[in-house]
Each structure stands twice: as C-alpha cells, then as structure tokens.
TrEMBL record:
One of its GO terms (cellular component) is plasma membrane. Residues 35-463 form the Oligosaccharyl transferase STT3 N-terminal domain. Belongs to the STT3 family. This is dolichyl-phosphooligosaccharide-protein glycotransferase. It is an enzyme of class 2 (transferase). It is a multi-pass membrane protein. The lineage of its organism: Archaea, Methanobacteriati, Methanobacteriota, Stenosarchaea group, Methanomicrobia. Its cofactor is Mg(2+); Mn(2+).
C-alpha cells in the first residue's frame, strides 16, 4: 500500500490542513468573547454590586438562586409575581441548569452569591462567543473554508440584538436559543450532506449496513440533542421545527422532479425528531393542557408529527417511484395530505387545530394594540404604522442587511440551477427568518446568524471569482518557513487585493464599527430603580413569603393561598422583575405581560383591572376601584404600593392606553404663538400616573408619597410648565425624584362642624427624603348641617414598627382653615392605616 494513501497518513494530512483554520476560528472566538466583555465596568461595579442588564436577566438570576437553594428541584410556579395570581414559568430549564452546574462545580458544591452572580454575568458572553463555531461550519459546508472563516468573523462582531443579548451581564436565555438552534442547523445539515453523499437508503438501516448508516446516524442524533437543547432553552422552539418541515417539503419536491431518492432526508428527519421527542418527555407538564408557551404535550406532539411528516413524505415519494407517476403530481399529493391532516385534527381536537393555525400568525404576523408596544415583538419593518428599514440597519448595518438580501437572491439562483440540499436548507431557513423579523423584531438575534452566513457566502464567491484557491495552493506548496512569506506575498494579484479590501471595507468594517459602539455598556436598569427597590426591600413590611422556597401551583381554578400579610406592588409591567428580584416584593404586573389588564379585542370589551386601567384612571375613585378589583377577594386590595418613574410618565405613557384600546385625547393641539403644538391635555393630567408622578399625589385621599430617589434632568419640568399654562397653576417647574413610591392606605378621617355650606381647606407641607418640599392640600364644603370630612393619607407622627418606614412626611401638623379660622390637627400612623376618625 502506498504510504500516501494509508488511512493514518490521510488523517494526519487532514489534521494538518485543518489546523490553520481551527486556530483561526479559536482566535475569532476569543475576539468575540473580548467584544462581549467590554462593558465589564458597567456590570461589576466598584461597590461590589453586580448590575445585570435589562429586566429578564434579573428574573433568571432569581430562578437560578431558587434552583441552587433547592437543587436539583427548580421553580415552576412563582407566587412572588403577578399578585394575587402568581405565574407559571415559561422559561426553559436548561439555561438555569447550565449556570447552576457551573456554579456548583466552581464553588465545590457550595457556591457563594458572588460566584453565582459572576457565573451569571459571564454566561451570555461565553455562549455568544461559542456561536462562532457552528456558524463557521455552516459557512464551510455552504461555500468552503474561506466562507466559514468570513461567517465566523461576521458573527463575532454582529451588532444589534444578537450582540446586546450576548454581552456580559445580559443573563437571558436568548443567546442560548441562538447557539443551540445554530448547532441544530449545523448538525442537521451535516446529517443531510453525509446521508446524501453515501446514497443512504432505508434498506441500509434494515440490512444493518452500518458503514453507510453510521455517520448520518451520529449527526442526526446530535441534531436531535441540539434541537432538544434549543427547545429546553425556549418553549417556542417549534419555530425551527417549522423551518425543518418547510425545507423538507421543498427538498422532497426538488428531489422528486430530479428523479432522486429522498431516503437520506427521511432518515435524517425521522431520527432527529424521534430523539428530540424522547428527550423532551421528562420536562412535560400535562396539567397545563396543550400549550406552546409552556412545556406540554404540544412539544412532544409536534416533534412526533414532524417525524411522521418526514416518514409520510418518503413513503409517498416511494409510491410515486414504484407507480411511475408524473413528478408534478407529487406537490399536489403533499398539499392534499396536509389538508386532510389538518381537517382530521380540526374534528378530533378543535383546540389543537386552532393552536396550529394561529402559530404562524403569532410568529410572522404584525401585532396591533397594546402588544405592538412591546419592543421586542413589534415588527422590524413597521414602526408607528409606517414602513421603515432603520431597525434593520440598526441590527445588521446597512451593508449587512442588503448583503443578506443579495446573498438570498444568489443562493436562490444557485438552487434553481442545481439544488444542493445544504443550499436549499440555508435558503429556506433564511427566508423564513426574514419573515419572522417582519413579524417580530426580537428574531433579529436569529437572523444575525443568517446575515453572517449570507454575507460570508457573497464574500466567498468574490474570492472564488478572483481565484483565491490558487493562492491557497501556492501557500501550501511554497511557504515552508516564515522566510518564505515575503516571496509568497509577491504572488498576490491586484484583483485579489481589491477583493480582500472590498470585503474588509464594505462587509467587515461596518459590523466591527457598530459592535465597538454598541459594546460600551448599558444604564438599564437605572440606578434609581435599584435604589428604590432596595428601599422597598428594607423599609416595607415583610409580605410573609419565603422568597427562595418552591411553592406548588394551586389546583386548577383556584387561587394561590397567600398569607394575610401578602400584598402587591403596582407599577408598569417593565419593572416587575426589578420589584421582585431586587425588592423581594410581589409586583402586580411583570415583563411576561401578566397583570397589565385592559382590553385586547375592541373598545366594547370590559376593561380588565390591571396596571393599564389603574395608571390611566381619570380620578382617584376610578383608580381605587381598579386597585380593589384586582384582588378577587372584596376584602383585599390588589396592591399596597405604587411605583412610578419619569419614563412611565412621559416616554412610555401612551403604551398604557394602547392596552386599554382607548388612546384618544391624551395629546391635543394648542396654539402657542409659534403655531399649533401637540401638548399633554386635561385627560393626560387627570390620569393617575400624572397625578402621582408630576403632582406628587397632591389632593389624593388614600395615596401618599413615602419615598423618592434623586432627581435627574428630564422632561418633567417641561410637562409641569404645560400644566401651569393650561390650568393657570403655579406648581414648581422643577424635576423631582426620578422614581417615586406611593402607599395606598385607608386614610385618617378628619371631621368637624362649621357653618353650613362653608368652604373648608386643609393643607400641610411635605418634606421628602431628598430634602424637597411640596404642598399637600384638599378643599371641601360643609353640608347643610355644617359637617365636613377630609380623608388624609399622611401621618404627622412618623412611622411605627412593622409598617412602612417612610422618610417622606409632613413638616408639621395639618392646618384646617375656613374663613378667618385655622386649626392644627395631628394625625397618628395608626389612624392613617386603620381609617380612624379624628374630630376637630
């Protein structure tokens, strides 16, 4: 045997030829990690605090701590949010388990909180850097090693949501979704390529021809494992199952028209989704019915259904071949089979049918109403009802986005000429992800993978055009030592240099520049929110819940049995996880969009009690009715505290009426001397959010300011100027606390007797913990018998043990005045909390 053809020699030569590329991918991976670690100082603060980015990462840290406290049992139902109902956790278990296992290993079985926080902060950056590996291999098998290297470079710097969700401190499962879904596509592609190359037939499996079956079987099994890992990171993983099915239909049709067997495809699909169906079984919660949002029988059924789909497509193709039927009947047979299958499901289980039919619209459709205000699920291409490409450019850069479109077109032409399975797979995958970002821009962190691969595909074709392979061969044959490199460089042709420059300038530099700008850190959450939530934790009564305990979900149709001391904290849904994780208190609404209330279909629906109806309520009475209605027990209120910030009052206020489907009249045109300007109207200033945040709850009977953070320079002063302009008022036109906490109390009743129909006033000066003062006042008229009554929320005597330890209180007694008479009234905290009467 010739030594050059010996398997060991071939293996060594393959290793030697792959080594430079392996080293290059490793270097790119470390560069990718460096980019993601740049905001280190924004996460690990000098005071020792670890500041995770945005809201969902805080919830993952919450679930991680509960998991480690009760390992290996994880929390599935959480009563510490969406008070008074609690929430089932739809987050997949895998991301938390990976962090937990890492923490346990590094902490030798007993990790400290500092170690847990450190692991949590680094995890997204590491997973983001690892994504370089599957992207390289997909690029390699699509267009060669140079395409793979370019794809790895592009994803290493890919800006937008993929980068933001894989930066240090963004401890969320999104980066795991990207990593595992890309690994799934990589191994699925390898399984298909090897199965087709070996001309695999089902008979090879039955005849135990393992030489043919072995490699495709291994890749198919790993693809199934990766799909399961993806699915256990996000329950909506059926998105990629749908992509695999659509690809299968296209590939089967193409193979049938070309007279080729598709057994290789059927084998791969059946094995892959059989493995995934088996692996997901232990995580199913049958008690939740058939839902795609939690781990239910839906996930097993869809995997089995996809497996059956591959089997049916193969069976039909075999029948067509055996009966010599014309190829163009095959697509008709597939669509007829699909139609009959859906028809059977509709009659057998209407709920399952409805779920299947609505699923594509959920992913690919443009949302309206309140849901359209959720940043990550709004359309990539429509903002405010207007078509725009600005979001696409922000996520992928101008050159990257257009390169992906051009790459799709070139790939489509290549498929039309000669349909290679790997090209068809990437084409279908990319087109469907493009539709996905049309529906929800959150899928930008998926499409970044496609943009990187398609941009690399164009770059690879350009290098082929200038005969880059000749340089590869020359390098291998002529460069034996570093001294040979100068001579090799002289062999470069002008067109090859220009091609490299074009790729560097038009494709690499834009993503690199955007990544450098974006990876400088985030101020989210604002430190004022952290400070306010820590105050909430230390200065409000214990709600009586074991924070790190695992609670059983209530029986179907029943409420969770909260202790009498439990209460909710009302705020906009964005801040629910901060309130829970930092404040250790129970928010009414959270970033799962639970507890928002309002309407979903039309203005004629009942306005369900929740955050939106409360914050947009046009009077204290209306707001209190909402607050009391949140809790199904008429003896209990839905919340004890209300938290607000300037962003709620200005930047995102209009999102609140969007959820009630009643958006008219909050802004109106006013003549200002320079023309008409849209300014906040009476309806806006009458809203509970405005009354609380801008007017400090002045005049409200049962809501008192108990804490405020420091003031920022915001738009608040301008809004107060508009208020004074519209109402002829004179409230100070200054910025006040950025975050404010109010308490809902029964209020003390101050009663007295004066002349009939006499105007009676009450007022006091309130001093906040920030040293700011404002006036609190009410006015009423006595009745025909001279009786009057005020309900006031502030205590003049300070806090009492076991209750709110407020630092915002009157500077002195209340002053009741009528005519020329004034009377001072002091009010105890007990009177405020118990609704006691104080007679003047």
């Amino acid at each position: 045997m010739n030594s050059e053809n010996h398997p060991a020699t071939t293996f060594k030569s393959r290793i030697k030829s792959s080594l430079p590329y392996t080293l290059a991918v490793a270097i790119i991976g470390f560069v990718s990690l460096w980019v993601r670690m740049r905001p280190y100082d924004h996460v690990f603060l000098s005071n020792g605090f670890v500041k995770f980015t945005s809201n969902d990462p805080w919830y993952h840290i919450r679930t991680l701590n509960v998991l480690l406290e009760n390992y290996p049992q994880r929390m599935f139902f959480n009563p510490m949010t969406n008070y008074p109902y609690g929430s089932y956790i739809h987050f997949g278990p895998l991301y938390d388990q990976m962090m937990a296992i890492t923490s346990l290993i590094l902490g030798l079985g007993s990790p400290s909180q500092d170690l847990i926080n450190t692991v949590g902060a680094y995890f997204p950056a590491v997973l983001g850097a690892l994504t370089v590996i599957p992207v390289y291999y997909i690029g390699k098998y699509l267009g060669g090693r140079k395409t793979g290297i370019l794809a790895a470079v592009f994803i290493a710097f890919a800006p937008g949501q993929f980068l933001s969700r894989s930066l240090i401190g963004f401890t969320d499962h999104h980066v795991a979704e990207s990593l595992f879904s890309t690994f799934f596509m990589m191994f699925f592609m390898l399984a298909i390529i090897t199965a087709k190359k070996k001309n695999l037939r089902f008979e090879d499996l039955f005849n135990k021809n393992f030489i043919v079956v072995k490699e495709p079987l291994i890749y198919s099994i790993i693809a199934g494992v990766m799909y399961s890992a993806y699915q256990l990171s996000w329950p909506g993983a059926s998105l990629f199952l749908f992509i695999a099915l659509v690809y299968a239909v296209v590939q089967y049709i193409l193979d049938n028209f070309n007279g080729e067997s598709s057994d290789y495809l059927g084998f791969t699909g059946i094995i892959t989704f059989l493995v995934s169906a088996i692996l997901i079984l232990p995580f199913i919660h049958p008690e939740l019915g058939f839902s795609m949002y939690y781990y239910t029988w839906f996930h097993v059924a869809t995997a089995i259904g996809t497996m059956a789909g591959f089997a049916a497509l193969s069976l039909i193709q075999r029948e067509f071949k055996n009966r010599n039927l014309k190829a163009y009947y095959y697509p008709l047979a597939i669509f007829l089979l699909g139609f009959l299958g859906l028809l059977a499901i509709r009659f057998a289980s209407p709920s399952v049918y409805s779920l299947i039919i609505s699923a594509p619209n959920t992913v690919f459709g443009v949302l309206t109403g309140g849901a359209a205000t959720i940043g990550e699920v709004s359309s990539m291409f429509y903002y405010g009802g207007t078509f725009t490409l600005s979001r696409a450019f922000g996520n992928f850069t101008v050159s990257g986005f257009f390169a992906s479109i051009i790459g799709l077109i070139i790939l489509l032409v290549s498929v039309i000429r000669k349909a290679k399975p790997e090209e068809v797979l990437v084409l279908v995958w990319s087109i469907l992800m493009l539709f996905a970002i049309y529906g929800q821009n959150r899928f930008a962190y998926y499409y970044s993978i496609n943009v990187s691969i398609l941009s690399a595909y164009i770059g690879g074709l350009l290098l082929e055009k200038v005969k880059w392979n000749e340089l590869d061969e020359k390098f291998k044959s002529s460069v034996k030592s570093p001294a040979d490199i100068p001579g090799f460089l002289k062999s470069f042709r002008a067109k090859q240099v220009l091609a490299v420059l074009a790729i560097a300038v038009f494709l690499i530099y834009p993503v690199y520049g955007a990544a450098m700008v974006q990876s400088t850190g985030s101020n989210d959450p604002d430190w004022a929110w952290i400070e306010a939530c820590l105050w909430l934790k230390s200065s409000t009564p214990d709600p009586g819940m074991d924070y790190n305990a695992i609670y059983e979900a209530p029986e179907d149709g029943k409420l969770f049995d909260y202790p009498e001391s439990a209460y909710g904290v009302m705020s906009w849904w964005d801040y629910g996880h901060y309130i829970e994780t930092l404040g250790h208190r129970m928010p009414n609404a959270n970033p799962f969009q639970a507890g928002i209330g309002g309407r979903r279909g039309s203005i004629n629906e009942t306005n369900v009690p929740g955050a939106a109806p409360f914050l947009t309520a046009q009077s204290e009475e209306e707001a209190t009715e909402v607050l009391e209605s949140i809790h199904p027990d008429p003896e209990k209120s839905g919340a004890r505290y209300i938290m607000s910030d300037e962003r709620m009052a200005v930047d995102i206020f209009m999102a609140m009426p969007e959820w009630t489907l009643d958006t008219e009249g909050y802004m109106q045109p006013y003549w200002t001397g320079d023309g008409y300007q849209y300014l906040p109207s009476k309806r806006y200033f009458d809203s509970m959010e405005s009354r609380l945040h801008f007017l400090d709850g002045n005049g409200l009977k049962q809501y008192r300011l108990v804490y405020e953070t420091w003031a920022y320079q915001t738009q608040e002063a301008g809004y107060k100027q508009v208020y004074n302009f519209l109402y002829g008022s004179s409230i100070p036109e200054v910025d006040s606390g950025y975050v404010k906490i109010f308490e809902y109390v029964k209020g003390a009743k101050i009663t007295g007797t004066v002349s009939p129909n006499e105007t009676v006033n009450i007022n006091t000066t309130i001093l906040t913990g920030q040293g700011r003062t404002f006036e609190y006042s009410q006015s009423t008229s006595s009745d025909s018998e001279g009786r009057y009554e005020f309900i006031v929320p502030y205590s003049t005597e300070g806090p009492i043990p076991g209750e709110t330890q407020f630092d915002t209180a009157p500077t002195g007694a209340y002053v009741v005045s009528y005519g020329d008479t004034t009377t001072e009234v002091r009010v105890s905290e007990e009177a405020v909390l118990n609704g006691e009467e104080i007679k003047v």
